Every structure is written in C-alpha cells, then in structure tokens.
Amino acid sequence: MNILVCLKQTFDTEARIVLEDGRIKEDGVQFVINPYDEYAVEEAIALKERFDGVVTVISIGPARVDEAVRTALAMGADEAVIVDDPAAFGDEFTASTVLAATIKSRPYDLILAGNQAVDDGSGQVALRTAELLGIAHIGVVTKLSVEDGRVTAERDAEGDTEIVEAALPVMVTAQQGLNEPRYPSLIGIRKAAKKPVERLTLADLGLSAETVAPRAQIVETFLPPAKGSGRVLEGDTAARVAELVSELRQTSKVL
Amino acid sequence: MADRERGGAFFVAGTSPEEIFTPEDFTDEHKMIAKTTLDFVEGEVLPVADQLEHQDWELTQRLLRKAGELGLLASDVPEAYEGLALDKVSSSLIGEAMSHAGSFALSHGAHVGIGSLPIIFFGTDEQKKKYLPDLASGAKFAAYALTEPGSGSDALGARTTAKLSADGKSYILNGQKQYITNSAFADVFIVYAKIDGEHFSAFIVERGYPGVSTGPEEKKMGIKASSTRPLILEDVHVPVENLLGEKGRGHVIAFNILNIGRYKLAVGAVGGSKVALQTAVKYAKTREQFKQPIANFPLIQGKIADMQTKLFVAETIAYRTTGAIDAALTEVDLTGEKGGQVAAKAIAEFAIECSINKVFGSEMLDFVVDEGVQIHGGAGFIQDYPIERMYRDSRINRIFEGTNEINRLLIPGTLLKMAMKGEVALLQAAGQVQSELLGMIEPADEQAPLGKEVHAVEMTRKLFLAVGGMAVQTYGQKIEREQEVLANLADIGIALYAMESVLLRAQKAAQSNKGDAALQSDMVQLFVAQTFPQVELLARDTVAVMQEGDDLKMSLAMVRKLTKYTPTNTVALKRRIAKRVLEAEQYLA
Question: Looking at this predicted complex, what is its ipTM?
Fold first, then answer.
C-alpha cells in the first residue's frame, strides 16, 4: 500500500506571535509538524505496519522544513519529498497546485493530511489537492479503517458523527482523536538520517512561478486586541437580560 | 576539529574558538533526540508529576520502561549489548531534557549513569551480556551503592565486607549502604565492599539474592520523586563471577564513575535551571505591583539577566567538556572487552573539567532557584508554586557526586598529579609566567570586540599559574594540608575555564553566524565584569596567606599588574539581556 502524507511545518502551538513591520517574526521560534498532520503521519505508519507498503511524506517549505520531515521519518515514514522553492510558498491555491503536481506522477492508494494547519487554519489545501487530482476526499476524520480497497471513516459533522465509505484512492484529513501520535524513538531518529529525502523546485514539477502565483493577497496582519476586564451586570434578572441584549447588539454587535 | 582539546590544557594555554564544542554545534540528530526526550517528559511525566512526588514507585518504573521503549535508557550501552552507543553529547542532551521532569530525572539518571555505567565500563563480556540488554530496555533497573553511614566523602573508608565462601564460589557480603537512589525498585545494585576487610572492590548484587533488603524511605528535603533508602546486606552470597573489575581495584571504578556523574550532574543543573528561569520570567510578567508587571522593574530584570547569564556559562562549559570527551573517545578503540576501560580512561583525562562543571553547575542552579523564589515573593514560599519544589530539589546537588568542597580540592590536586605525570606542562608554563611578569604586560585592546574580555581571560590564566606556582614553591608536598589555598586556586581555575569557554563560544557564534552572537557577547561582558574582580580578590587573599612584608608587597604589585581592568556598564548589559529573555519568556543563546 502506498500512502502519501501531506505535511506542513508550523509554529509550535505555544510559540509567541510577534509582529514586526506587519509580518510575523520567525526568529527564535520553535517549529513543529502541524499537529493535525502529525495524526496523519501516525495513521499512515500504523496502516503501513498493518498492510505493508511505503509511506512518503510530502512538504512544501524552506530548508527548515527538513527538521519536521526528519521527525516524520524518525516516527516511521519511509521517504520524503520537499518542494523547496520560494515561488512555491504562497496561498492555498499555490500549495494545492504544487502538491497535486508533486503527487500526480507518483503511485498512491491513500493520501492523508491534517484537516487544517494551526497557523493559517484554512482547512482548504488537502481538499483542493484532492479535487485537482480528481479523487474523492473525506475531511475531519476521527476514525479510519481500510479493508479490501475501501475505507470507512468516521467524521465530525457539526457535533454528530457521520460514517462515510469510499473506494481507494482517496484523500482523508485527520482530526484530533484519530490516534495518539508516537514519539520518534532514538533508533528511529538514527534510521531517519539515512532515509531518502528528495528536494524539488517548481521547474522539476513542470510548473512556473506564474502558474502557481497566489490568488489571495494578505492586506494586513494584526494581533487580536488585548482582552479588557469584564463587567458584572447588576439589578434583577429582567433588567440584566435587557442590558445584556442591548450590549450584545450595540457594543459587541454580535446580534 | 583539527586538534582535539586535551584535559587540563586550558590552565597553561589558550585555544581557538573552532577547537571547542558549543551548543551551536548540535547536529539535527542531537536536536531530535533532545526533542523526543522533552516530548516524553511533557507528554508522559509532567502530567503525573504530583503522583511521582508522592512516591508511586510502580508509576516510576512504568515511565522508565516507557523511556526504555524510546531508547532513552540505551544511549551509553554498546551496540553489541543491544544499546545505541550514542555520543556523550546525545546522552547529555537526554539528561538535560530529562531534568525538566523534576526529580524523576534522578531515577532515570541513577539508572543510566552510576547504575549501568560500572558494568558498561568495567564488566566482563559475560556480565555485560547478562545485564546490559535488560538495563538498556528497562526490563531491569540499576542502583549504585557506595556511601555508608560512616563513609561519605571518604569512600574508601567503607566498612562493608566481602569474604570468599569456603567452596570458593561466592563472596559473602555484610554491611549497610546509605542514601541509595532507586533502592525501592532497583533489580541490580553496584555495591562496594572490602574483601577480607582490606581490598576495596565492586560487586554486582541482585535484589533477589537472599540477605538483600532495603530500609525505609528517607524523608528528604527535596527530590522526593526519587527513591532513597538504605541497602542492607546480611550474609549475601554473591557469585564470584559478579565481582566487577579486579579485586582491590574498586576505587578505579568508583572514581571513574564519579567523573561522569559530575558532568552529567552539570547538564542536569542546566536543564533544571532553564525550567526555573522560564517559571520565574512568566511569573514576573503576570505578577502586578504598583499597577504594572514586576518584570518592568530594573531590579527584577537584573535578576533575570544574572540567571540567564550564569545559565549560559554553565551550559557552555558543560557542553564544552562533553564535546571534548566525545573527541577523545573517537581516538580510541572502544571495541572488545577492554573497550569500556579504555573509554573510562579517556574520560578520566577530563576529571578536572568534570569537577569544575559539578561545582559551577550546582552553584548556578542554587543561584537560579533562589532568585526564582525571590522573584515569586511570598508565593515562592508556598508549595502550590513549582518554584518552591525546584528550590528544595536544587540543594542536594552541591552535596552528592562529591561535595563541592571535595571537588574544589580535587581541581588543583588532580592538576598537580597530571603535571607530575607530564600530562600538562604546568611547571614550564608557571616558569614562563614568572619571567613574563618581570617585563611589560601588554594592555587590553579595548577597541577590539570583546578585547577587554580576551585580556581578562589571559590574565586569569597567568594569575592562576603565578599564584599556583607560588603555592607549590611555598608548601611543596604539604600543599594538601592547605585546603583554603587549594580551594582559592580551584575558584580561580573555575573562573578561568568559565570565562574562557563563554568567550570562545561567543567568538565562534560571531564567526559562524550561528546562535545569538549579540546576546552572547553581552553575557560574556557581564560575566567577566562580575568574575574578573573576584579573581583579583582571590589572588590577593591567597598571596597574603603565603607571604608578608616586602615579598607580599611585590607580589601584590604583580597581581595589580595583571588585573588592570576598566569597569563595564553592567546595568546597561543587564537591561539588554533581560529584555531578550522577557521577550522570549525562556532561556536563549
């Protein structure tokens, strides 16, 4: 079974976000595998352990991405592809176009990815990639079983669980709860150093900077406003409700 | 590295930045090993830290086994015995990361360190085959039993005896050991006893042997998540094949194991201090007084800068020594039955550096947790705040693995022995300094980057050689009795190694564009500004012990000549350093 895992390296979830000249500062920040992608890696390795096969990790990003990819290899993935080309770092359109081009030429039965990245949180890339590849996708999966060329997945659906079946090949995106990712063992870390990592540019994929240029433009980046102190409403219940409704309407404008 | 660092060589000559190992040299593999260990600590140990603190030994063993599954018990075990045989930087990084787990780190450290290493270094092939695979996987746990009620620092004064049985098949051990880490659950104890009350020797003693028992848990001030009990040996028949090393050569094992225990203690202190600093910084940023976070106040910032800087020094020397040991180990053949002993000998070359690390690391940790409590104010005195535990946990570090007093005596003591054996060209260097002192001393180039600091390091080296030379001339063989003089010399030596190491690290960072060169430069300036005047004081005091009248006046003039130094604006440095730590909310370099 050939399993591909789309992996993004993101800020550590506990990293402090600092803006400098309207951009997010990367200096001194700890980078990790996007936690949802980590579930995808774990699921892929667990499936490989059951069915045999090859797990290939695919990532887009600069040299630092190597660390995240090596971690996935140390967990048990077999090989990796990194598209390291500044023109490949763009929006969801760019990422899915580049991923689809990378995947197109490779054999695969199953593609796994996180349901979203914790940094920009769009939740689009994996699904758009599946669309570009012309395969089915099941998103936000909390349980996955593979049997006789078919997958059965349980997915979060607005608080309920939906059970979905599909034939391979299929794209599945992982939600928290799918599994408990393993720690890379020291033996795994040692083996990872010798596993193949292929580095590609857009040209290698037959793409150009123009064809993958981002469609979205970041107009402004800003931190959420500091949280002010709360206010306790006074008076009897009716008065408090009335005041609350009026506050929600006029001050916070959520109603 | 073209030429590797030699043990003790820093006393006689400087070295270039490229020749020392620094944390900026960590490989990706090193970083991943540290990350796996930290993830294990954060994911598995910290969530149950409270339970561990209440001495749930089943849980301790479960976690150790889990660590074993990840390979975290196997780093020092040779591959031939199902270990990973990683370099010492890797095992130091594991030790450092483990110490984020509070005193669970001691259960781990005692097992992989003093518990397993005697067999790794001095075991026969049979002994290694029998014990090491289980110790590496976590199927069995080890402990180390040297101390007795009547013998602590004077380890060779042990009263535990071993007597060959009538049939010649076993040694019969009798006696009591004290303060044995992991004793609640260890399966294997390395026990020191005197054969016929005379020949100090080491034995591998299994818990299951009849006559082996442990006493009650000690009620300790800190490190409560680690088990500490007496080990009682009553007519224990230990098979003769479990004699470890040669009869009467137990001291060789004991001293070699202590060397490693010492630099490992230092990396543990570095890990513990990083947590304490982070805890204190976060508290200082949230605690408000006078309508603002106390982190805004310069005196709090000064503490944070001092904590960060001392930590930087301790980290730098710990990994300089570890890296130097690794370089020495690559030169020798570690295969074969004697491979372990060869390794121990290679490590013993750095006995002085190990002692320096032990002293500096443990005193740095005490400083950091103490200021950590101070930053917490009253809350630091309350058990609900983790800094309170860190403060209690720290204190033992100045005591075990050789008290800091013993280690201070060892620094000049070992150096003299190395000089006698021709391993360090101490006498030649001391002679040269004496003649140099008659001439002009080139002043510091204050325009060059870190020029003052470069000069201070060189002058400290000269002072050590001059004062040390004077002490040897004054006391000759009887210098051993002059503990105060020896301790002063040790402190000058520690200052030298510490200042030189951070200077070289900062220079290397600036050259290689790795690490935070600007911050490192600030910390070097601050540390030298705080340390060099201490060196002057120590030198003056020591000279005044040995001389009087005109001789003393001449010697003090010599000290003055070597200690010319323009004071630095330490306030500006501290504010800059603190700003960076407060932004990062953690140690950085």
Answer: 0.87
